[in-house]
Design goal:
21 strands, 534 residues, FAD/NAD(P)-binding domain, single chain, disordered C terminus, Flavin-containing monooxygenase, alpha/beta, 30% helix
Length: 534
């Protein structure tokens, strides 16, 4: 795992004592056990559908029902002559054991988080005879500690985001301060680059062309330098890096774009996952307003042009995704219950246009830029909390801790204190102080919307959202499917109906979801053990 466990927790289900890792960084198996414990805690296992292929997402206006399925697919590159290659070809999602490439000369295609995870595993296990990482663009590695400070304390506080250009909602005063402090901020980032270059022995040939603050929007790569030959990224332990691209395959290797031949016995594609919206019909895709750089939404959840639809987890990326998804789910539950009233469509569209302009000014071009927040995650969380009438400053009166203390899901767990089974059975959350429970009860004063959100926000699509300004439905039936195939299904429907009967109004409509039966997808599908979603 490339983030500390304290930053990778569900805010309504903190790591149970018996599963809590002994070291700061959990193993993949420990994370899998934790996610399973979460699913069991909320009774989600009976709703799991594995190896199910996405077919469609279609709205039936006459019956007010969705026919829905959702998923991502692996992005597998196809090169000329690949069928003639005598060696092994694997996408990272299918790479679960280093023994699969034992004794082979391995070529890893890509340089993202998954690629570096695979490099660390192979170098540490000494399973492969050699490992070469082929990349088009180098990225800045982030050590687990800098100058003795844990990366958790550096990336997850309010001070570091202050070194970036202002958030799109920043006041004129904040923008003026930023302009005045720009030279100081530039010096800070140059110093960080120098420290990282020295720690990982980065030389001109492997030095990223993109400045560190811009590169962090690609996701950031926290490395255990002990797994890479003492931190040497360029050589050692049979590991080398090579900038370039594959042009074609031959029987015992690959031909690169520059014409050079590279002998390899196994190719591991760490090329991520292709996000697709083809499960929507053409009319809905048009109304979503898809851009070349991604899908832009109000609060990264709501498409103003498509009523009855919201996204949770699938259209946002921060350095604490698991926390962000939880806050999104809580925010959406308040929208569904009437606790948060959406502004007029015109206002939401103006906000989206402001986001687009800001992102295109401060973030490097990439396919999913509409969902990227990364170090701006703190400001985004503050937005959601203000919408809900909650206090965004979670450190109390301690100004030093507020500015420089690490923010983790634990700081937000009190908001979830009234959210269903988590409040009753999770000993950490149940111990929240009375003041926090008062805040939580204020958030859920309209009934069981929070309960419907609990245990359901690993990422995906919510169906059944009321029109902006209309009354919430008394009998909402939500279907929520997640990248590891966890769906909320009937549980949320039951709880929402059971708690919302006296909140209906004459203008609300019965919104329900029909699940289309799906056959098993070809191939092994998405593995639950792939937790980084590269």
């Amino acid at each position: 795992m490339n983030v500390p466990w304290r930053t990778y927790q569900f805010p309504d289900f903190l790591w149970p004592e018996e599963l809590r890792p002994l070291s700061e960084y959990p193993t993949g198996q420990q994370v899998q056990q934790y996610i399973r414990a979460y699913a069991e805690h909320f009774g989600l296992l009976r709703h799991i559908r594995l190896n199910s292929k996405v077919l469609r997402l279609r709205w039936h206006p006459g019956s007010c029902k969705w026919e829905a399925v959702y998923c991502d697919s692996a992005r597998e590159k196809f090169y000329k002559g690949a069928e003639n290659f005598a060696g092994l070809q694997l996408h990272a999602k299918n790479f679960t054991e280093t023994s699969a490439v034992s004794g082979r000369r391995v070529l890893i295609v890509g340089a993202g988080k998954t690629a570096l995870d695979c490099v660390c595993s192979l170098v540490a296990s000494r399973t492969a005879s050699s490992v070469t990482m082929l990349y088009r663009q180098a990225h800045w590695p982030m050590p687990r500690s800098i100058l003795g400070f844990s990366i958790r304390n550096l990336l997850f506080n309010r001070a570091i985001p202050a070194m970036l250009p202002p958030y799109y909602t920043a006041s004129p005063g904040a923008r003026a301060v930023h302009a005045a402090a720009r030279p100081l901020k530039r010096l800070f980032w140059k110093s960080m680059e120098a420290v990282i270059s020295r720690k990982f022995h980065i030389r001109n040939a492997t030095r990223p062309h993109v400045p560190l603050p811009a590169d962090l929007f690609y996701g950031g790569q926290i490395l255990d330098d002990r797994s890479l030959g003492g931190g040497h990224l360029g050589e050692g332990d049979g590991f080398t890096t090579l900038r370039g691209e594959i042009n074609s395959f031959v029987r015992h290797g690959v031909i690169l774009q520059d014409g050079n031949f590279l002998p390899v016995d196994a190719v591991l594609y760490c090329t991520g996952y292709e996000k697709t919206y083809e499960y929507f019909d053409g009319d809905i895709r048009s109304r979503l307003g898809l851009q070349k750089d991604g899908l832009y939404l109000y609060r990264n959840c709501i498409p103003p042009g498509v009523p009855h639809l919201a996204f949770v987890g699938s259209e946002v990326s921060t350095y604490s995704n698991i926390l962000t998804y939880g806050l999104q789910a809580l925010w959406l539950s308040q929208v569904l219950s009437g606790g948060v009233k959406l502004p007029a469509r015109r206002v939401m569209e103006e906000d989206i246009r402001a986001q687009q302009h800001w992102r295109r000014q401060v973030m490097p071009a990439q396919r999913g830029r509409g969902a990227v927040l990364m170090l701006y995650g703190m400001q985004y969380h503050d937005q959601l909390l203000r919408d809900m009438g909650a206090q965004p400053r979670r450190k109390g009166l301690n100004l030093l801790a507020e500015c420089f203390g690490a923010y983790t899901p634990e700081d937000y767990s009190e908001l979830m204190a009234g959210c269903g089974p988590a409040a009753e059975r999770n000993p950490v959350t149940a111990a929240a102080d009375p003041a926090a429970k008062t805040e939580s009860s204020a958030l859920t004063s309209l009934g069981g919307s929070c309960e419907a959100a609990g245990g359901a926000y690993l990422g995906g699509v919510y169906l059944g959202l009321p029109d902006a300004g209309s009354s919430p439905s008394a009998s909402l039936s939500l279907w929520h499917i997640v990248p590891i195939a966890l769906s909320l299904g009937q549980r949320a429907a039951k709880e929402q109906r059971g708690t919302g009967g006296d909140r209906s109004s004459s203008s609300s409509r019965d919104v329900s979801v029909r699940l289309a039966p799906v056959g098993a997808a070809s191939g092994p599908g998405m593995s639950p053990s792939l937790v980084d979603g590269a």
